[in-house]
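seq:
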Amino acid sequence: MEYEKFLTKVVDDGIEAARKSYAERPDKLRGAVAGFESCRGKSPEELRSALETAGKATQMARVCRADNYWEVRCFEAEIEWVCNVVSAAMLSQNAQTVITPTARGMLKAADILGVRGAS
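struct:
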């Protein structure tokens, strides 16, 4: 699967899940959707940079006790999720990862790539 198609699937699936998870939390939903959308079309290097920037914003929001903390935090969390799943796919190709992928990231990547074994 081409990288761009894979990334688009990660983002689209993430937005769909966020809409379900945060249906009652508009602040978290705004941040989550914005975080996913910010990942569209980005290279792994650009994703790494976006995650670093978002992490700094979350830290600042926490320290300042910002009213929009959860929006900022969810923005970062979804960029981290995209980096996680992208990294899992990269690891499967013996490529350098953006971050160390988690087991959940590996499972999501396998689902998208169609290589997950029967449960």
